[in-house]
Amino acid sequence: MTPSAGGTAHEFIESAMVHADMLHTLARRLTDAREDAEDLVQEVMLKAYGAWQRQGPPRSMGAWLATICLNSARSSSRKRQVRPREQYNERALEQVSDPSDTELLALASIDALDINRALGDLSAGQRQAISLINLCGFSTDEVARMLDIPRGTVLSRLHRGHRLLAVALADRAPR
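The structure assignment produced for this chain is given below.
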């Protein structure tokens, strides 16, 4: 592996792998099937490595990878025909770290399948905002830059998406 504008392949891997969980979480929320998410992550890594070699390392590796993921997901969805969603069953949270945290207790009692269905029913913009902010940990300013939209639009999508999720999951939470 020879050095290039972005450094060695090893340097790219070290920088990118720090964000692998975030990238997989985001890809899973942007696609209908686990296999599609895995394909998307691979595609993102290939595109990112090529850009890394041509242009060098980005200022914010996580935001850069998330932006590539968003753009790749949009391109893929335009090319694909619509097909039924994958059905699977996982627990939303296997262990609750703080039993006094009522939010975590409520989430732990809701099946991951229900959460994924509810997320899938949101608009693409709301799903992206929730995934990037709540699941990947980006700030609203970072998400606004990634999606190339005003911060207020990000906040609006996040708020409306949260409200729709709350309504969709209300009957599944403990009372």
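Interim note for the steering committee: Residues 34-55 form the longest helix (22 residues). The mean pLDDT is 79.
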